[in-house]
Specification:
By secondary structure, the chain is an alpha+beta fold. Strand 2 and strand 3 form a beta hairpin. The radius of gyration is 19 Å and the shape is globular.
Length: 229
């Protein structure tokens, strides 16, 4: 069997941890539908009145913020006017003020030092921040915002890989770890081992880091990789 175990919304959870925004942290700790919660806060409606369209728009904003997306990029991805996209982003930062503060401080620190840093101290030089061309500087700012989250997610999955490999050997698994894709680990596994493997890998992945919010690993399996997805 193929077994896939991947992190659920790890970059958004890292944004909650790193920014320490109380509303973001509470949403994850209470196990809410995070995109619906964001939609309610951004569009000013009760959660139970959030439509699939509003949830989809909020999801685009949530992930766009992680990548330093500005109004133009959001307008392009949702095919909406720039003014509407800008208003959505403004309302997002009103709903989650700790995120705005964290991102601004991260960019300022990167301008001062010349690099952005993950939670584990891995640095990403950003010379673009010192360039004169505005579009190049803007790219540098987006990189500075994104690296602490995406870079930390990469650090975490690599630590998890090492620990999973150790336990595969120590606990006598026949299963083999064959692939890592972003925030997902993939395995070849005898059918009779699937349940034990999923329990072990999920345990490692969910406890690899101490955060303000829980890390959640979700598993699936199948006779092909497509089925396991």
């Amino acid at each position: 069997m193929f077994v896939a175990v991947d992190y659920s919304q790890i970059e958004l959870r890292l944004l909650a941890h790193l920014s320490a925004d109380e509303h973001l942290v509470r949403a994850f700790n209470e196990g809410e539908d995070f995109h619906a919660e964001t939609a309610a806060r951004v569009f000013g409606v009760p959660v139970e009145q959030v439509t699939p369209e509003l949830r989809s728009r909020a999801k685009a904003v949530n992930f766009g913020i992680v990548y330093g997306q500005q109004a133009y990029g959001l307008a392009q991805s949702l095919d909406i006017p720039m003014a509407e996209a800008r208003g959505m982003i403004d309302r997002y930062f009103e709903a989650y003020p700790g995120v705005r503060r964290y991102l601004d401080e991260t960019v300022e620190e990167a301008k001062r030092t010349g690099y952005a840093e993950t939670m584990y101290g891995r640095r990403r030089p950003i010379p673009e921040l010192k360039q004169r061309v505005p579009s190049v500087r803007a790219f540098g700012e987006r990189t500075a915002m994104n690296h602490p989250m995406q870079g930390t997610a990469a650090d975490i999955i690599k630590i998890a890989m090492v620990r999973v490999a150790e336990r595969l050997r120590a606990e006598g698994f026949a299963a083999k770890m064959i692939l890592q894709v972003h925030d997902e680990l993939d395995f070849e596994c005898p059918a009779g081992e699937v349940e034990r493997l999923v329990a072990m890998v999920s345990d490692v992945m969910e406890h690899v880091a101490e955060l303000r919010v829980p890390l959640i690993a979700e598993a699936s399996s199948g006779t092909t990789w497509a089925e396991a997805k």
